[in-house]
Amino acid sequence: KPSKEAFRPAFHFTPEKHWMNDPNGMVYYQGEYHLFYQHNPDSSVWGPMHWGHAISKDMVNWQHQEIKLFPDEHGTIFSGSAVVDWQNSSGFGSKENPPLVAIFTYHDDKKAAQGAIDFQTQGIAYSTDKGRTWIKYANNPVLKNPGIRDFRDPKVSWHEDTQQWVMVLAQDDHIGFYSSKDLKTWQFESNFGADWGSHAGVWECPDLIRVRIEGTDEYKYVLLVSINPGAPNGGSGTQYFVGDFDGEKFVLDSDYQKMLTTTPAVFPQGLDFSNFKNGLKNWQVSGEAFHIVNDQPANTIASSFKGSDEAIGTLTSKSFAIDHDFINFKIAGGKHHNSTAIQLLVNGEIVKTASGNNTGTMTERSWNVSQLKGQQAYIKVVDNERGDWGHIKIADIVFSDKAAKEKYEPSIWLDYGTDNYAGVTFSDAQDGRHLFMGWMSNWQYANQVPTEVWRSAMTIPRELKLLQTPAGVRLASQPIKELDSLLSNTQQKATLTGTNSYQLDELFTVEPGQFKVSFSLSNAEQVTDIVLSSDKDEYTKLQLNPAQGQLVLDRRQSGLKDFEDGFASLQTAPLQKGLEYYDVEIWVDKASVEVFVNKGVSSMTSIVFPTSPYNKIQVSAEQPLSLSDVKLNNIAIEK
Ligand code: FRU
């Protein structure tokens, strides 16, 4: 059994003890970065929320501080932001000593327990001593609840053009925009998002930033929106939108409008059976129609066939109790596929059935099962057509109290890994940088991960940039340069060429579970595997598949995994096709792997719990491959 501190990251922020989720109130002021965070000081599972606090000069080395915001008569303290009020618009400080002002959500759980829906409101607090002590505003809340159930996570920034404060707020399935002159009175301006992006879960933790497109003088607004569930690889994740904002309204760029209305040609997400207690691994496959793609039953299936008799089969789920009003899912079917269907069975009888449309486009469907609540049921996916060609694809079968829209809603994601959630940027960062940190976990299993003393870490800080790519403008995540201070003794090789496999730990000295490895891959037509492994047969595999435009992160054998059924997953991300070379950068800590490809245009963050830290790195392919600029840095920690 690993020791109690075995999974404590070496270079990621963790609370000293007990539960942490979202980063909050991140702000830079007078040489110090402040990180507040959702914190339950009494337990290692989520509970009454406080704002924990830490201070750093470089976002790398953090000093723990006392808890700064405690629950009060308005509720517990949910997520929010902090700003430097330079003009003293709030009157809480002076121009000479501008106040720091925190804007956060009050969550009144007593009211919620009584069945009210207006239990979330926004409050503020201020500090005039560089964040050391905080005073809550006497007239809280400053933004009352207009009757919206999920009404939270205010992120405030100064809008230069209109000389006012702007707040973005998550409101059920969209973002509300508000303005203020003094941080104390807020005026509603507009809504955005009910028609765009993914709506498979509730919207949370927005951020609005004005970002220069690298290499141009053009600026765009980027709106980050976290969503839970509905992320591309299950559970919670963060999508983004690029557009313009005039102080009142956010308008999505026409490119993004097109992209988000066009269904991607490639089935993007695989199956998310995370809401089934036992996951797909307990489904029964009979016949041959259903190929478990790459033998990866945890979250991906597809059925595809070509005019032969073998192309017939069924996939049957374990039985489950119907416990919500709707079962929602996404479905697509090819031509000649009338008899291919997904069915819901109760007592062996088909009570619901659906088949895909003929275009191959994913559409969202809902079965209203409110009449069947409490009954035992199972699902069958049936493929009994011996046609010319075709396929059926099903994704995201989710129990819900609400019906899904009859439409598939594509989205663009900040990070395709499972473990980067609720991230936002620091206020007032210098030199126009957009410095981001996310919570390195996922609501799907956050409360169960195998640590007891503390629970959860933040991602490494990243700088967000808008890069021009052949596909259009994309938001890239790049590890901040301050992290370089952690890197000791760079070991490098200008090129490695001639064979199809390189064991980097034989070429370099690797500090177990504390290193960064990077290289650039030049003959990138073929599938390349990067395997990080330990002395204990545990590994995390990253696979680059440029021909198919896919990046896959496999943590099925990564270490401890049985604490939750869906954790041992295979995660996929889109990868740009046909580039001359692919630069790959991987940061490995005791319990995480963070991957950045193509200057961070593709990123995947994943937590893992190897019982012995990863100390081997193999890069391999079927044919000889060439790596250049190969670097290995061990990560030195002196605290
Ligand atoms: C996101 C979130 C926020 C909320 C906070 C509660 O992870 O659900 O929407 O403010 O966590 O801890």
Automatic annotation (TrEMBL):
Organism's domain of life?
Bacteria
Q: Which Pfam families match?
A: Glyco_hydro_32C, Glyco_hydro_32N
All copies of the Glycosyl hydrolase family 32 N-terminal domain together span 12-258, 402-479
Show where the Glycosyl hydrolase family 32 C-terminal domain sits: 482-623
For molecular function, the Gene Ontology terms on record are: hydrolase activity
Family annotation (PROSITE patterns): GLYCOSYL_HYDROL_F32, PROKAR_LIPOPROTEIN
Indicate whether Hydrolase appears among the record's keywords.
Answer: yes
Keywords on record: Glycosidase, Hydrolase
> Is Hydrolase given among the entry's keywords?
yes
The entry sums up its family as follows:
Belongs to the glycosyl hydrolase 32 family.
Its name, as the record gives it, is Glycoside hydrolase family 32 protein
Query: Which organism is the protein's source?
Result: Pseudoalteromonas neustonica
